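Progress against Task 2.4 (sequence-to-structure conversion) is shown through the following example record, which the project officer requested during the mid-term review.
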Amino acid sequence: MALKDHPDTSSKLLNIMEELYHIKDLDALLDTVLLQARRLINADAGSIYLIENNVLNFSYLHNDTLFSTTRSKYLYTSHTLELNNKSIAGYVACTGKAIIIDDVYDIPWNLPFTFNHYFDDISGYRTKSLLAVPLKTSRDKTVGVLEIINAMSRDRAIIPFTDRDQLVLNHFANNAAAAVERALLTREVILRMIKMCELRDPQETGPHANRVGAYSAEIYHQWALDHGIPQAEIKKTRDLIRIAAMLHDLGKIAISDAILKKPGGLGPDEFTSMKYHTIYGARLFENTSSDLDVISEEIALNHHERWDGGGYPGKIGDIFQDHATLGPGKKGEEIPLTARIVALADVYDALVSKRVYKEPFPEDEALNLIREQSGRQFDPEVVAAFFSIHDVITAIKEKYREDPSLTFSCRITP
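Structure tokens generated for the chain above:
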């Protein structure tokens, strides 16, 4: 049976691929790929593994039974699988073949792979039926594996997947793989930009950028839910803020080494010079031809503004003039929402991360400082969103933890 025999499904797939084409951030793309795959064949849960550095990285997770209405720490569960035939995902990645399993706890002994029940054990979930397909590009390159779990009947009973489900999911995965490969390239380009900045400022690392980006996306998501923002707008803005937040400190590349790498505190003139990294960063997005450019500029410029008006660079008539003058601080909602969110995400990460001049703050102490600064340094509603997803925040911190062998010579900029 060919997919062309199902015109409704073919039409759905075309509409989904159009949606995927417009998504820029990798996490947002994986979220949509998994959601649409589950909708196509009515499945309760699913996960995506991506091939990176010759291993399979557990990269995204959905589970309607465990977390259908709220963000969950399990979204940032972090583990890897060897790229071999011993796991289900490994087998699919290595062979390029899809597999259907009616009950993962009753896999025939003569098959090379077994089911890893670790997630079931820690979450209390019960995986049964499973359909796994490779994410394979048109050049026959496998970039990952899409696993769909527990097919559901109309009355929400778990049923086996069908051959038609496999046909539909294979076709979908072959098209989605190109979008995933493109998003992986975008993420790699961004991390290379961060790496370039790290050559000047050792504080700016890939894990730091990933943490701030992920914190910001999740805080925004919760803030938007709290304010009744339509789901379509939430998805679009979450996609953009995830990328733009990673680029918040690129302007530091224009600050001199004498300031960036000074081991002690900065003098008044040095600190004034440091403040200009916000302006230099915003100038990188002068050609505001896209929504991503606009959000990247507003975050770079405003992520050191304070809710009480005591931040910088303040109100500036034209950031592109040769000698832009720092102005009085923006206050409250004069500061763009995206920048208010990144301000909190960036400070939290600085507090709980190790620096050459300090050990990481204990979590409770960092949280107390953020509470104290609610309504002063930080938007109270952003703080409330942060605390309501604290388990997700800590999962992100663990997923993108720093290499313990690294040390940093830079200070926290106020």
